[in-house]
Amino acid sequence: MSTPNIRPNPQGTRRRSQRILLSVPIIVSGERVNGAPFVEHAKTQVVNADGALILLREQVLAGQKLRIKNLATNEELLCTVMDINIGESSIPEVGVGFSEPCPRFWRVTFPPEDWSPRDPEAKRATYVAVSAKLAPVKK
Question: Which string of DSSP letters, residue by residue, matches the chain?
Answer without folding.
Answer: -B---SS--TT-PPPSS--EE---EEEEEEE-TTS-EEEEEEEEEEEETTEEEEE--S---TT-EEEEEETTTTEEEEEEEEEEEE-TTSSEEEEEEESS--GGGGT-PPPPTT--TTSHHHHHEEEEEETTEEEEEE-
